[in-house]
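Support reply, case 0932

Customer input (verbatim):
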Amino acid sequence: MAYEIIEQCSIGKKDETLNEDGWIATPYYVAVIDGSTSKGTLNYGEKQSGRIAMEIIREGIKNLRPNCTIRDAANELSAKIDAYYLSHNIVKEVQDHPENRLTASVAIYSVERREVWQIGDCPCMIDHLTYENPKYWELPLAQARALYIEKELADGKTIHELQKKDTGRDYILPLLRFSMIYQNNEEQNTYGYGVLDGFPIANRFLRRISAAGAHQIILSTDGYPKLFPTLNLSEQYYKEIIEEDPLCIRRHKMTKGRMMETHGFDDRTYIRLLLDK
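Our regenerated output:
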């Protein structure tokens, strides 16, 4: 085999059956998939939209041709989500309301092409270089949430209370929903970003990184705030943040924090590969 999985984990923030992260390894592809937390109002039944998106993409990667380009993969995986919309008669709904779309980000290693593909905000590390692909608007919204929660704390709210009811998240939620109009929006030069959501993805939203000659690759979802060369170090940093800043408003500002009865602020997935030379 052209690669070996040295270590991997996928941990749901609450319950493994609700985990919206996933991963897959075939002879030709290794991928992590991050189904996006629902921000819309459309009821998808027993499963959250992010979980459904992840499962569709995971199954789709199984059937990708070995020598796909990133363009081929984006088209084929998007078509799988579009087929779901068609079969459930919700095409018009998701066209008009982007916040209701099935949405996922991926980092995929192509064995044949020796490339890592990023569609969305899943980071990766090739040898000791980290490649992130963040949304331009996400940090300002995280800062706005932090500002709001700091005011709540100054007014007497406790961390415990804010872990039960994240009023900062509620404060920025309308903007989080609004920001989804920029999803796969090629006309938006500043705020546009790419994801797998069943709609066409412009070439500029497809990131291809050469791994030719690399010894090690790490693929991760953005549930890990910082990547390290081993799972243990990445977990150690993650747990330091959870203990020091459970609301995620200081050391690592985020658009959500750790709520009560959860293991963390987000689902998280990590895979470390060693490559044959």
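We compared this against your earlier run and they match. Two observations from our side: The CA atoms of residues 29 and 209 lie 15 Å apart. The chain has a mean pLDDT of 94. Please reopen the case if you see a mismatch on your end.
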